[in-house]
## 1
Amino acid sequence: MQGKIIGNISNTYKIKTQNKEYESFARGKFKKEEITPLVGDNVEITITDEEKNMAVIEKILPRKNELKRPKISNIDQIVFIISTKHPKPDLLMLDKQLAYVENLKIEPIIVINKMDLEETYKEIKELYSKIGYKVIITSAKQKMGIEDLKKELQNKISVFSGNSGVGKSSIINVLFGIEKTQEGEVSKKNKKGKNTTTDTKLYQLSENTYIADTPGFASFEITEIERAQLDKCFREFKNEIQNCEFVGCTHIKEQNCGIKKAMEEGKISKQRYERYCKIYEELKEKEAHKW
């Protein structure tokens, strides 16, 4: 029998089949082969106790992709949620996240929640829409933009990601119409969100449509990307790299750089370019201390 892993707590896996859900353990062979079943995996199981809904995982079917943070597989898209204030939008982190998914060839959606500051969300939407990213404006409290988001989720497995306090759990609750996740509070003292989601789970929104709620990211590192490949993870850079005079141009100190020229001409956002430079230097520093 085949099913999908929709939850994992202490190596007990919740498997959803066509008709029901089973609590399941993985065969010992997976540990010997150093293979860990992940939420999102499609698996073959054997029922060990039908009355108690118990099963054992026999085989993990091939994965089309895999995220290390959070640990999840077979993702169609990642929904990055930011807010206009409390917490204020961290666009450096967003650009790291976008570079990360570009590297994995997973499609992102940017959701700007809490529409308090109109000027801020309009600027962010204009910047990322121009690059070619899908941007949806929502208000979980006012239930605005939720139907637009729901359409983008159909027939896909979507990971929801965002710093605590941006309203990620609130959006998920509104999508389902019930309280699916424990909603966090933003501390008024320091304006930082308290992390409330502790493990990764898949929630079924409709047939073939799943949402993964994941632990909030306090920081986000993209050490999987080599600094020499970072420019290929900035979508708007791709057509301009060919205009660089030097092969292997870092787009930082070189003369006759196609990226810098495109920025001067207004084709590339100066802010995005500056964040690229910051991320590049971070990767360079990490690579220098790797060994």
## 2
Amino acid sequence: MILAHQIKAFVTLGVFLKQFSENERKQTDNSLNVIYYDEFNELVRSIHFHNGWFTETNVRNAIASIADCLESEQLENWLIAYPEISRNEKPKKVAVIMAGNIPMVGFHDMLCVLLSGNKFIGKLSSDDKMLLPFIAKILIAIEPLFSEYIEFTEGQIKNIDAVIATGSDNTARYFQYYFGKYPHIIRKNRNSVAILSGKESTNELGLLGKDIFQYFGLGCRNVSKLFVPKEYDFKLFYESIFDFQNVIHNNKYCNNYEYNRTLYLMSNHPSLLDNNFLLLKEDESYSSPIGVLFYEFYDSIPLLMKKLENDTEQIQCIVSSTSLKLKIENLTAFGETQCPKLTDYADSIDTMHFLINL
């Protein structure tokens, strides 16, 4: 396939998807809308019956993130960095084993595989097996040649040339055992952290709430831990995130929150703080349970930077205010963790570079 034709198809897909992020049908006479709008809109509205974490709001947020990336200028600027992209006469078959923690989390991998000129073989999570195949169907309707490059499978993965697999630290060992003989990217658990100075505004902390609660904290880009100065007063933090209190009305989130609160109270944790929808627990770990946010006090920024540098493989995003003047590459602003750019590769592994050099 010609790269320019692929880019054009994805741009058209982005225009179509943007309607769902804004929940407003804009092109009533568009052929894609005539065929697919109502069916896809119904899927967006009802997918929570299949997976209670996939609320309509969260699905529309995920669609918005995808649609924002599928703009012509963004795609072209991204691909400029890869002049070695070629159209192989024999494209490689790349198996992509996807997680199911947030809606359509495997879309970026699919995009990379296709634009690198290779064939995509998707192995979906049982938690997210409807949305991406539907989007692929729309993409094929836009550019029928994609039908030869996109495949989803529920069976054993065979006859492949490379693997991209995303999962937990435990499943990573399984992936390594079965797919280690192929060129591969195997992703493990990662978490995101926020560094606070104690001088943040209510608005900044409110945006941090978005980084914590969007997708119920299930993504590797969600903030699961705070680093705060000693004697930090959490009162303003709790006041600033109060608008997210409705998260407790989701049954799955509430069950996790109640379970963890009971567990911690029975264990008499002295550092436990609670506002009836988020527990704050002092803990050195990065991966906090659902409904819980870990925090840790730091003595100085230089010592904290050294710690984070040593723990690089556990961290996806670092969120903080620019006023702290942290010397961190790709520092993420408050409220932006779930708005990744095309160049924000999972586990900081350049997926496109890997694919075009198979």
## 3
Amino acid sequence: MDKLSDIGTIKEILAKYGFSFSKALGQNFLVNPSVCPRMAENSGADKGVGVIEVGPGIGVLTCELAKRAEKVVAVELDKRLLPVLEDTLSEYDNIKVINADILKLDLHKLIKEEFEGLDVVVCANLPYYITSPVIMKLLEDKLPIRSITVMVQKEAADRLCAALGTRQAGAVTAAVNYYARPEMLFKVSSGSFMPPPKVDSAVIKMTLHDKPPVDVNSEELMFRVIKASFAQRRKTILNSLSNGFGKDKSSVSQALEKANISKTSRAEQLTLDDFARLANELLIYSKETSDDLDV
């Protein structure tokens, strides 16, 4: 269907099906006609490529993906949008809409059943309230996907794409960098949406690593170290980890020294390699002293 990003067309479609926006689901539909083609082009959608889309809305981005990709599977939580999507996507035979919660979906099973023989990418305009949970699920599930291209709140995009070792970096920055290489693609103003949100957005792309960029003996422990370090980011790494793990400072201090990390450093100053070395030293300490770190 043409003109899906036209405000008049959107209002007409929504009125036809008696649809009203849900604030709880963070629904904001794109009305800027230039955004979705750029997202689809940057996502890697092409012949021989399958795309998973999260939250298709009325199908503006879905259509652009379907024009380029071999197949698109759109996962929509709001069942009220199913008849809308059946209408707006009717001219495409390479789209499948699934009514499900992406956070509860078995994506390994979905990819195996829907994209056999295809490369797979993810492309989505994510509701702000589930940005981090969705991104982390896509990464932590270790799916056979090439990349994740998403539109998120501008502030979240800045943090996700921040360089580790800088003030903008956070725990999620470190986690994302372990699994992928994030990059900022372009900004999207609040006026590009209906209804317009109170903040601007940005499109980012995370290209997954073939293998992790650091050597770590326990991923679980490293992520616990990262989380504890940033939980009290104004404190020194020594105090943050002592509090976070409930351990005396001497044991943490010893691990920091062996990892060649200053006890007065703060989480935002550490690189992914620093966190990996520190986790490895804490694991060695745990085994040597039988001090249980729950790993």
## 4
Amino acid sequence: MTPMTFVYLIAGLVLLVAGAEVLVRGAAKLAAQFGIPPLVIGLTVVAFGTSAPETAVSVQAALNNSGDLAIGNVIGSNIANVLLILGMTALVAPLIVSRQLIRLDVPIMIGASLVVYALAWDGSLSTLDGALLFAGVVAYSGFLIISSMRDKSSAVDDEFAKEFGLQETPKPYAWLINLALIIAGLILLVSGSNFLVEGAVSLARALGLSELIIGLTVVAIGTSLPELATSIMAAIRGERDIAVGNIVGSNIFNLLCVLGLASMVSPQAISISPNALAFDFPVMIAVAVACLPIFFAGYRINRWEGLLFLAYYLAYTLYLVLFATGRPFAQTFGDAMLGYVLPLTAVTLVVIAARAWHKQREPL
């Protein structure tokens, strides 16, 4: 392993984060100039933009026949988004969860996770599988736009406008500046993905680790940095809808858009590791399902729940380290997580949700 490996990794992460930020700002302001409501921009442009690093890395990995890296990036990012980012954000400030998120977006996130798992069950994701997933994100985006236009919330609309500076009076030739920002953002994303994929593959080979492990950890956390920055800053500013909705929306786009595009452009079907099917996919689904009762219990994420998320992320990462280093305790630890800890937590969350639901139905 040479110093250039770390140079590639760091340069790739920096370029990806910068590219996503520049792309989102330019695209959001350009869309606003064409009269598109801020809420619609937030649901589409921002959602695509925060998932842009995952898209760039997974597509580049698929083109390079590094399927494990593409899959690990998406699974690891979805797990990190909920456990790590929502956990850290909730520690900064307890988060209010909108009812629409619970009734619509979280169930869609769970459904998308199950659909991807079902498509991957045969050990690969084909071009047809990718097309089906991408059709799902097109339908989801269309539904969001139509429903938001029919039932527009001025408060949320103003929140997105404030966050992305959409209330400013555009300057002459501003569209050229915004178009230049979009092009610059795309160039940075492509360059960053090339650097990050090359560095990640080199790191995996040097350490004797699989590309799946590197994708689940180093790459996944790196490509989730835009979501981390967006959610924490939104929580500090009191912009609760962006803080939580950003994570759920990003996870949906990761599953449908990122994996869909990666499967469609891959020269051959993306093979799915048996380890990913046996452990990482179930963990990702369990994390998605865990959001429902936690979000439903009082329509908020408290600090102790954020701490619980962080504890689970540390446990998951510990398992990956133990597994990657070939420690005999890894299998026992993984079985304990899947067979005891996760079911016990699920029962606890169901009880919490049931009590919250019963309390809400009690007459005043």
